[in-house]
Design brief:
Blueprint: H1 3-19, H2 25-33, E1 35-36, E2 39-41, E3 44-46, E4 50-52, H3 61-70, E5 74-81, E6 102-107, E7 113-118, H4 128-142, E8 148-154, H5 167-186, E9 229-234, H6 237-240, H7 248-268, E10 275-282, E11 296-304, E12 317-322, H8 330-340, E13 350-353, E14 357-364, E15 367-372, H9 375-388, E16 435-437, H10 444-452, E17 457-460, H11 478-488, H12 494-505, E18 512-513
Parallel strand pairs: 1-18, 4-5, 4-17, 5-8, 8-9, 9-12, 12-13, 13-16, 16-17
Antiparallel strand pairs: 2-3, 6-7, 10-11, 14-15
């Protein structure tokens, strides 16, 4: 880490705090810092790894517009509660109308201070049709910008005393979600029959005042034949604290069954829609699949139909499980992770790790038993993922502490004596399935802790809700203020720590790619600071 780089980052931090972020931030990072932040979510390319986690901040078109304009790579919409064609919801207890949230300081067991959001709400409480319209609106807003829109759903999960699954809820909800997701991309208001598809011809602007067109430096949005819909199945922290989640065997049954039911429901959907086929290839190698970070060019665009017996149908769904922190020990967290990695129809396409902790005795607004975040959440998540990534040995072989690889920027060098590293000889590898990280991500450095354990994207919620005096930027949206801190903070920002990791890992200096860091938790020379 050179003094010149640290001074340049500090200068940008101060300048952007006053004037706002550059309109083409990914280009700026590449041009000024040789930093390529392109990555993937659910196997789909996104321009950067930052996303909005499902919750109260992603339940209106205005909120989505702010995030798209702010430059997020993806937005996960508020979690809807599945229903059947009659409107019956077996998980209706999670559709609680409550919007009040309070950002509060919290101290972890380690003594570290952080933030948590206290509230007593749960999932989407408005009508299912209103949620479908939100998907359409969000897709129209994001179309052509590169920002990926991701629906989230809580499907039926049988209790320990139940053996039957309410498949009708899976089938009806999945079909309607697919319909809305594709309608929104095609520019329709409701259904496509008898209407012509409005296909975007050029990218829209990500930030007000900036124009963008298709070019190698601004790849088009992820499109393919029957473009797959990414979908998060939410295993929420309140679910972890409910009577449904008291039996480990039943939880593992959920993990094995939910992806299969969603896929079967998507395959059974025969709602007709036109499909746009757009093929992209890396500029330097037309025959290969796209590698995140490489420039893309359109090869051909056409319309076609797909589906059984020639019937037009929606494309596949990319199923992701948002894993909760169950009310059991770390060994069971590892068992859940091993279960979702089992081969077969029940294996998801990706997963999100991990939802907030649940405290049955914690109170808020007269309600006893709420979820919480902060340092305890990230400590547990990183501890579990470190153990899970320790290939070739028992899970407990890896360090119990979060690890920041190598030495810090010069200003933090004095903290190195408190650092802990994985033990010698512990091989750390990629976990075998793409995953998105969540949990107390309030700095770029913390995000890279998750990335070293294999995460290719990060989804935040609490950090977008802090008091305004916690951000250096004096104007602009919460999204833009948060991104300034995440990228450019001189001590804990993504830019300085990416360059440190690149040097420690011996990555090429002419183009430092974020995707080359993911899954590279290994013994690196030097010590790491304890603070994150």
């Amino acid at each position: 880490m050179t003094d010149a780089l640290l001074e340049r980052v500090a200068g940008d931090y101060e300048r952007f705090a006053r004037a706002g972020l550059p309109p083409r931030l990914e280009d700026y990072l590449l041009d000024e810092y040789r930093l390529d932040v392109a990555t993937t979510y659910a196997g789909l390319p996104i321009p950067n790894p930052w996303g909005k986690a499902s919750g109260q901040l992603s339940m209106t078109g205005r909120q989505v517009q702010e995030d798209v304009d702010g430059g997020l790579g993806f937005v996960v919409l508020k979690t809807v509660i599945a229903q059947d064609a009659s409107g019956a919801q077996s998980m209706h207890a999670w559709a609680i109308r409550e919007a009040r949230m309070v950002a509060e300081r919290i101290v972890g067991q380690s003594g570290e201070e952080g933030w948590t959001i206290s509230w007593k709400g749960r999932g989407w409480w408005q009508s299912f049709d209103e949620y479908l319209e939100l998907i359409r609106d969000a897709q129209r807003i994001a179309r052509g910008t590169g920002t990926l829109i991701v629906p989230s759903c809580k499907y039926h999960l049988p209790t320990p005393d139940e053996s039957d699954w309410k498949v009708a809820e899976y089938e009806y909800t999945t079909r309607r979600l697919l319909e809305a997701w594709h309608d929104g991309w095609l520019g329709q208001s409701e259904g496509w029959l008898g209407q012509s598809a409005a296909v975007p011809q050029q990218r829209t602007t990500r930030n007000p005042g900036a124009s963008q067109s298709l070019s190698p430096s601004h790849p088009p949005p992820p499109l393919a034949t029957r473009s797959p819909m990414p979908l998060e199945k939410d295993f929420s922290p309140t679910l972890a604290g409910s009577d449904r989640a008291v039996q480990q065997a039943k939880i593992l049954e959920w993990m094995r069954t939910v992806p299969r039911l969603i896929r079967e429901s998507a395959a059974a959907s025969a709602v007709p829609t036109p499909t746009r086929r757009t093929e992209f290839h890396s500029v330097g190698d037309p025959g290969d699949a796209h590698i995140p970070g490489e420039a893309l060019e359109p090869r051909a665009t056409s319309f076609g139909t797909g589906g059984r017996s020639g019937t037009p149908s929606y494309g596949p769904v990319r199923v992701g499980l948002k894993i909760f922190n169950a009310m059991f020990d770390d060994a069971f967290q590892l068992e859940m992770l091993r279960t979702i990695h089992e081969p077969g129809p029940g294996r998801p396409d990706f997963f999100v790790y991990a939802n907030r902790l649940f405290d049955p005795s914690r109170e808020f607004d007269g309600h006893r038993g709420i979820a919480y975040g902060g340092p305890d959440l990230s400590d547990r998540n990183l501890r579990v993922m470190t153990r899970f990534a320790a290939a070739g040995g028992p899970p407990a072989a890896a360090s119990d502490e979060p690890v920041a690889a190598g030495g810090p920027p010069a200003a933090e060098a004095g903290d190195a004596s408190d650092a802990k590293q994985p033990p010698d000889g512990t091989p750390i590898t990629r976990c075998g399935m793409e995953w998105s990280a969540t949990g107390n991500i309030t700095t770029g450095k913390m995000a890279l802790e998750y990335a070293l354990r294999g995460a290719t994207s990060f989804q935040l919620h609490t950090f977008f809700q802090l008091p305004t005096d916690q951000y250096a930027m004096t104007s602009g949206s919460r999204t833009q203020r948060a991104l300034l801190e995440l990228y450019f903070h001189p001590r804990t920002g993504f830019v300085v720590w990416m360059h440190h990791l690149a040097a420690a890992l011996g990555l090429p200096g002419d183009r430092v790619r974020f995707v080359d860091v993911a899954g590279r938790l290994e013994r690196i020379a030097g010590d790491a600071p304890a603070s994150r």
